[in-house]
Amino acid sequence: MLKLENIVKKYRTSAVETLAVNGLSITINQGEFVAIMGASGCGKSTLLNIIGMLDNADSGSYFLDGKDVSSLKANERTDVRKNTIGFVFQNFNLIDELTVGENVELPLQYLNIPKSERKQKVDRVLEKMGIAHRKNHYPSQLSGGQQQRVAVARAVVTEPKLVLADEPTGNLDSHFGNEVLDILKGLNAAGTTIVMVTHSSNDAKVAQRIIELRDGKLLTERVEAVNQL
Amino acid sequence: MLGNQLKVLWRNLLGNRVYTLLNVIGLAVGIAASTLIGLYVIDELSYDNYHEKKDRIYRLTTTLDLGGDMQAAVTNMAVGPTLKRDYPLVENYVRFFGGGGEVELTVDNTVYKTDNIRFTDSTLFDVFTYEFIQGDPKDALKAPNTVVLTKTLALKVFGATDVLNKQLKMNNSMLRVTGVIEDVKPNSEMQFKAVVSMSTLPQQTRDVFTQDWFRIGVFTFILMKETIDPYDFEDELDEVNEKYVLPWGQANGSEASHDFRLTALKDVHFDNRHEYDLPKGKKSTLYIFVLLGFFLLLIAAFNFINLSLAQQRKRSKEVGVRKTLGASNSSIMRQFILESCLLTAVSMLIGLMLTEIFLEQFNQVSGKYIVAWDVFTPKVLAIELGIFVFIALLSGAYPAFILSNLKPTTVLKGTQQKEGSVGLFRKLLIGLQFLFSIFMITGSFLVGDQLEYIRSKNLGFDKENLVTVTLPSDTTARKNALPWIDLLKNDDRIKSYSRSNLPTGGSPEIMFRIEDGERLQERTVKCLFVDEYFAEVLGLKLTQGRFFSSKFPTDAQQGFIVNQTAVKEFGWEDEPLNKRVQWGLLADNQAENDGKVIGVIDDFNFQSLHNKLEPLILLYNPSLQGGTTVSIRFKEGDYTKTLSYLEEEWNKTVKTHAFDLSFYDQDIAENYRDENKLFTIFMFFSAVSIILASFGLFSILSYSIQARSKEIGIRKVLGATDVQVMWIIAKDFVWLMIGAFVLATPVVYFLWSSWLDDFAYHTNLQIGSLILSLLIALVLVLITVIYHGIKVSKSNPIDTIRVE
Ligand SMILES: Nc1ncnc2c1ncn2[C@@H]1O[C@H](COP(=O)(O)OP(=O)(O)OP(=O)(O)O)[C@@H](O)[C@H]1O
Ligand SMILES: [Mg+2]
């Protein structure tokens, strides 16, 4: 599915230079569920943003579906992104001025899907996430868990091949957290590739593979046996 | 506490340096522009308000019925004294005689050309108030051959102001200086550089103008014993008509009558219903100016208010913290109001400075004489104070009120505030700004269109390669000019020339009798005395009959040429030729000149296009001793060399008088000075208003984008393209603009149509220019949006949605 080779990403501020990702190479296969772990500041989010093409690496190459995407122009990246990738953010990033339904509909709009089809897809995914009755509410009227489910719904409504989730359970108590994990597990079972950043080794257990980073480099990689059972 | 608040204010201002600067300067420019316009309006409204007896002074005008009504600004000489004698309420009168054309003053053999010298009664200084430097107002103008000079003229011809009893020659008569006064204030209707006693006029002239009730030519002002209602008193004036005018008419074979009217002095400046009047102010222009000033101020104020409201979002956290630390609502209100007062005050100071700096330029364009000190009159200062309070309160109190009532917890939780009522209010302000801008852009187009229309409108004669030389009024000098005129005959660079008394401003109007069915009808008609070359030189088109010719010497007494309008108005459509015309009327249908129409010419616009075409009769005068002008038509090509040759020759032959040249196109342009003025002012201030509105839009957009950066980031992550992102930013504003356009159109339409109605010939409001102004406004929005849009699209979406 995707292959990163020697990815380097530096942040330069006036005084210091931070090596957020330092020559990292990984390969993730179609249908995998991968968890990325590591201490705060080790470069997890940066890596995820590069995978999601929200950010450019300074050097290294990136193949997505066998295509070299590291040298694409901004427009082309937007195009690839909206067709193949869904995002779930730690802080939900819902648009406050739009209702739940409208938030979820947004990526479909950008794919120019006709209105009736959009409505169908939105209804279906909200149903699946168990928040259909909240469709006309605004994000601020929802609990944290509900908001996160909306965020997941928005990420998967286009049925992307790859879902990237940056600490999707970070803001949730264990009950809501588990709900979100269950949803991701379900998606994965249906064939979606999932890359999830998490601090919790408990959460990481749902993944088939765990990648641990330190200072922007790969520390260990282990296959989670639990999931194999 | 205050120190701490000021510190926060200072840091805030520094933090938003660009926007603070833009908005302070914007407000200052708005204040300066509207102050200038305000000064203009105040000046227009302050005409003659410095006379001590202003509330009791009225101007006497008359509607003459001479087979067709004519409202004249002037009366005959008798009516003033008659009123004083017959009506106890009338305390005094003063008359002004003489059009104020050019005269020659000679002091110690040096000739000074000057204009605006009028004959007037010795009562002048009893009725009106002028400041004497030398002399005694009571009897300054009592004796014949006395003159009172204004300071400027005294300095020009004598080089001093203590010139009592000195002699000077005006044209051909000697005058004694009996007084020197300060210059007549520019905001006075009756302008003069000097006044000569009425008794200086030859007895014969005075008799003619006094005895003939229809020989009108003096401006008459009446001083009443008390303030009166002009309408009531006008009724009483009917008696004058009964008692004097009608009997005189009967005795002289005329059925004409007068209907006298009074206009309060304060209303005279805008009373432009009359013929033979001095240039007047135009109310519709004044209204447009008031609106312009108001809009400019509002646009700047709205920017300022919008800025404060936009800041509110950023400030809510500060307020929350202050409140948890114990600040009261009122102390927070105080803080915000203090801030806005300070900023407004700074803008105001800069604005007043700008006003003073641009005063000179403004005077030049507007033709006003506003001085620096006028800004500090109580009236203007009171208005400025009003503006200050208005802006400071709205920009400070409104956000202060909203913020001070916020619950600290909501603010501190950092939950984003909704784009609720505040957003709506701000959008409304921006919408109004657009509305004003569109009004002003269309206004500029319209005034420009009208000017262009006037310029290109067919005048009925060919104004290219045509110049006019005005001959001296001094008889000896005019005789000296004759050899020079002979030169024109033999110069092959000159195609032709013609002598006439063709005026460019107005035209003499005399009483004719014209054929009307079976009888002869009396009526006044405009006329020109011309020689036989006139039609050829001006390029007039003869449609019927023939032009005057030296082969028919009888043309001088018996030949008349009329224009098309005369044919129509006299009801001669079927056969204008050979209709009977008389002038120099005597009793019993007799006249000194009695003859027939020998030709008809196409209408030509010899006046400004403010006037409708009027009937015109051309009179033949081959010798033209009274001719005042020579019109010269040059052959094709550059005629500047020929002109300078002519000037040299003139100076050789006519030593005492300078070569007085005018070009037709310029003369006509002169007539539209007012419109040109309006156009320049309008163009300039529209530009200012558009720039101000763009400032506002610029800062509002950047705040709006800041506030929506997270949303924009999310949309980009979800696949929105740059264009889609820009549209999200621009959408609201584009709709606002279209809404403003829809609302502005009727306002624009009504206001500008009423302005156009003042012209006899005018364009209409072009849909094209309306749409063009909308496009200009839209382009401005788009430029601003694209500027910000590029910044947004360059940024990584992830930067904007990252939560630290
Ligand atoms: N825009 C930026 N400018 C400068 N430095 C940055 C920027 N973004 C990230 N960094 C730095 O790069 C490093 C990696 O950041 P990243 O956000 O990827 O860490 P993370 O592993 O996701 O941490 P956390 O677990 O706290 O989310 C950190 O040291 C961070 O300070
Ligand atoms: Mg992170």
TrEMBL record, chain A:
Record's GO cellular component terms: membrane protein complex; plasma membrane
PROSITE patterns: ABC_TRANSPORTER_1, ABC_TRANSPORTER_2
Domain ABC transporter: 2-229
Signal peptide per UniProt: none
Molecular function, one GO term: ATP binding
Gene3D superfamilies (UniProt xref): P-loop containing nucleotide triphosphate hydrolases (3.40.50.300)
Top-level taxon: Bacteria
Keywords for this protein: ATP-binding, Nucleotide-binding, Transport
Native organism: Lishizhenia tianjinensis
Protein name according to UniProt: Putative ABC transport system ATP-binding protein
Family: Belongs to the ABC transporter superfamily. Macrolide exporter (TC 3.A.1.122) family.
From TrEMBL, chain B:
Domain MacB-like periplasmic core: 20-239, 437-607
Sequence ranges assigned to domain ABC3 transporter permease C-terminal in this UniProt record: 291-408, 683-797
Membrane-protein topology: Multi-pass membrane protein
Keyword Plastid annotated: no
GO molecular function: transmembrane transporter activity
Transmembrane segments annotated in the record for this chain: 21-42, 286-307, 336-359, 379-403, 424-447, 678-701, 733-755, 767-787
Subcellular location: Cell membrane
Domain of life: Bacteria
Protein known as: Putative ABC transport system permease protein
UniProt lineage: Bacteria, Pseudomonadati, Bacteroidota, Flavobacteriia, Flavobacteriales
